[in-house]
Amino acid sequence: MSLINQVLKDLEQRREEPVSSAEGSIITMPRYTAAGGGNPFVVYVFGALLIILSLAIGFLVWDRLVEKNHSSAITGVDMPASIPAPVSTIVFRPPTAAPAALPPAVETMVTTETESISRPETVEKKRAQKIDPGKSTAAPVRAGLKKAAPVVASEDELLVEDGVKSGTIEKQRRPLTEKQLAEQAFHKGYAALRKGQVQTGERFFRKALSGSPEHIRSREMLAGIYIKAGRYVEAAQLLKQGVAVNPDHSMFRKLYARVLLEQEGLDQAVAVLERSLPQISQDLDYYALLAALYQRQGRHKNAVALYQNMLKQNAMVGIWWIGMGVSLEKMNQSEAARKAYEKARASGTLAAQMLQYTDNRLAALNEIGYPDE
Question: In this predicted model, what pLDDT tens digit does every residue of 267-321 receive, in sequence order?
């Protein structure tokens, strides 16, 4: 074991002791130190030459691309995909007009302007090469563009041709008609009357009738003001004009008859009502008034005939049964009168005062068998 140990120690001493290269031994050193050997100047020179060569090749390629772009802009050859194509110009035309071809000068101008949008520097260079300094082509191009202007019509131009310019529509207020002015005055008068301003309302109603005499509501309201105030002469004159202007309006005849009754003109009132009779189904009150006036005149037969026709339209109006009973009593038809009073009581539509009157007449007819004079 000692011999082996001695040999190993000798080997380790030989490895650790450096031996000169003259004896043919290799100097022991780390591998990375041996690999880093050599002259670094040669590496630097080689790298610089490689960079210069790359720059030269890139410059040549760029110059080729620029020349190809120039030729595409001039001759219309397809351009590389990296350069955007010129944007097409959209020309708006009226919908009914057929598309018209642009003049050559205008087409040249549109093409030139489109190219200037996508490649301003390239086109400026090309213009400098193509245009002769002694000859200017701007004038004919602009002249051609002016001639083609009517073809490209904007929305404002179309509106001007129609006589209406966009944003400048003027509203002209038309004057109101006489009927419209009368209606306006009526509403003002009615509003004033609701507020208790009778004189103001009267003034507006008069104004409405001065411009439009056939305005029915204004005449009715004004007649109501006159009748309520006891101004029967003015009311009669107003309603007489109303009957002449609107002969088919039965309300004017009814109001006029009532005014005449206030002036002790019973016969005139009956004549006004009899002059133009409406259909009984359209105006039962008209016939009720006429029947009452017949009773005042003592024309009970006429009154009974009217009441019978009215009750055929509506048998539940107790006051009409009473009116017919009164006329029947005057005609000495006690049994028919008693039945009429009973119908009036059974209708259930009588006020307390009229109900009391009916009971009194029934009692009188049952006891003495004839009407109480």
Answer: 999 999 999 899 999 999 999 999 999 999 999 999 999 999 999 999 999 999 9
Cα–Cα distance between 122 and 368 in angstroms, integer?
A: 132
Are 296 and 327 spatial neighbours (Cβ–Cβ below 8 Å)? no
> What are the residue ranges spanned by the domains of the chain?
103-129+140-147, 177-276, 279-373
144-145-150-152 Cα dihedral, nearest 10 degrees: 130
Quickly tell me which residue has 């009036």 as its tokens: 344
Distance CA 2, CA 124 (A): 98
Task: Give residue 24's region: left, alpha or beta (phi > 0; psi -120 to 50).
Answer: left
According to CATH, what is the number of the domain 177-276?
A: 1.25.40.10
Given phi > 0 = left and psi -120 to 50 = alpha, else beta, which region is 332? Answer: left
CA distance 83 to 69: 9
pLDDT tens profile 341-373: 999 999 999 999 999 999 999 999 987 654 444
0.85 exceeded by pTM:
no
279-373: CATH topology is: 1.25.40
